[in-house]
Amino acid sequence: MKKTLLLWLLLLGFMGCAGPDFDLIIEGGTVIDGSGKDRFIADVGVKNGVIAEIGDLSEKSATERVDATGLVVAPGFIDIHSHATSGSFGDSDIAQRPDAESYVRQGVTTAMGGQDGSSTLDIGAFLDSLEVHPSAINIGLFIGHGSIRATVAGEDNLPVTAEQMSEMIQLVETAMFDGAFGLSSGLEYTPGAFADTAELVELAKPVAAKNGLYISHIRDEGGRLLESVGEVIEVGRGSDARVQITHHKLIGKSRWGGAAASLALLDEAGAEGIDAASDQYPYTASSTGLTILFPNWSKDGGFEALVQRLNDPETRQQIRSEVIEHINIERGADPATIVAARCDFDASFNGKSLADILADRSLPVTVEGAADVAIELVSAGSCSGVFHSMSPDDVETIMLHARTGISSDGGIPAMNEGVPHPRNYGAFARVLAYYVREKGVLTLEQAIYKMTSLPAKQLNLKDRGKLSAGMVADITLFDPSTIQDQAKFGDPHHYATGVHSVWVSGISVLKSNVMVGNRPGKGLKHAKN
Ligand SMILES: [Zn+2]
What we know:
Blueprint: H1 2-16, E1 22-31, E2 40-47, E3 50-55, E4 62-67, E5 72-75, E6 77-79, H2 93-96, H3 101-104, E7 108-113, H4 123-132, E8 138-141, E9 143-144, H5 145-153, H6 162-178, E10 182-186, H7 197-209, E11 213-217, H8 225-239, E12 242-245, H9 259-271, E13 276-280, E14 285-289, H10 296-299, H11 303-311, H12 313-330, E15 338-343, H13 354-360, H14 367-380, E16 383-388, H15 392-400, E17 404-406, H16 423-438, H17 444-451, H18 453-459, E18 475-478, E19 499-504, E20 507-511, E21 514-515
Parallel strand pairs: 1-4, 1-5, 6-7, 7-8, 9-10, 10-11, 11-12, 12-13, 13-17
Antiparallel strand pairs: 1-2, 2-3, 5-18, 14-16, 15-16, 18-19, 19-20, 20-21
Helix pairs in contact: 5-6, 6-7, 7-8, 8-9, 12-14, 13-14, 16-17
Bound molecules: zinc ion.
């Protein structure tokens, strides 16, 4: 009897030495759990990288306690459209800047790359390389339709053969097996633009088979917006995949006010049982290569082929007249709305609009002159642009829709290089500062839902995007009264402020406004069902 008692005492003593109840308790914060439900005051206990308990933990012990009084405790934000992985692994933003400070300071803990139809074809190798060279945030990938098509069928405007089609399907299947979250398309870019809807339906079928997502930069965000949204819904109908209109927007001043019709298509699709959603970055300007001003036929065969066509006087005239037409219709006939963001061949263009460049040369600011400058810049090499072409009302209309999440469409820019779109530094913070605090378009609960649970659901990402027991401890702690995007058009290289602390898998990456230097981010693999 005595012996048993002694054993029990020893066991109890041993348990007492097993350490504190939690690794971390975030105390007394306002918990907004990502589900969209109302906020509540509670402590959040983290153990072994997982949220262990939410409630009154004042009696519990912890290795570290963080006072969150007056701050919001939310799930780490998920950027469902990121360019952090653009380029091959060695060149990508996340490889070059693995601390991902522009993201961390916005509270983003997961970025989804491989967007707009462009990705590495070897998803498995990219994810493996993240284990060797980890980053501060989690990275997941889509397989890009345009990259697959370029590899299998080249960059020409041709339908794919049956043989090429089966090769492309095989590449999607392999990517899904290796952990891709789905298929991305960029149908406004070549060679993605050369695909018909049937090709996309076939390629989305292996995505649907693994419960993945088809995410599309649609064919036309201006005059043919509704047809283009309809095509994505058609891919959902034909393949049974969940589908997403990424960076949902309406371009072209003459069409402003038309966003509601596009959202209505998503509602109709939903009523039909097609799981269709969208995401959005909170700005009235877009950003992409200046070649977006050029007709697709001129880009058939790739960049060299475009330059060759420009060298032929007659073809050049035809291209020029279509660029003029594009600027007239899509860009409100205003050369000031088209701004060079980064021209690798000559940094002096960076930050200047086509109107500025014409004025610098003492030339009249006309659409024709702007087309000539655009042709000159594109011929000279790689040049990205910022395009001011959306209406603030349409941005709000799209944001308010229940099926619209928040994304950045940005990457992790090199500080002070070029004049990139401010979304790279501020998209998430801007929603919380401008659209929640200043304008009251969204409640904090709605905004956080759109940054966490909604994208997690679209991604079939089951262990992130919500603050509840058992979820991975990706956590953002921010001050709702001060959070602010600091990046501006023309002056973008400023980190967002007001995010207090960030944890990824329970490991601190930002602590009381200071970057810690830890890199606990994971290469995320899509669940195999
Ligand atoms: Zn895009």
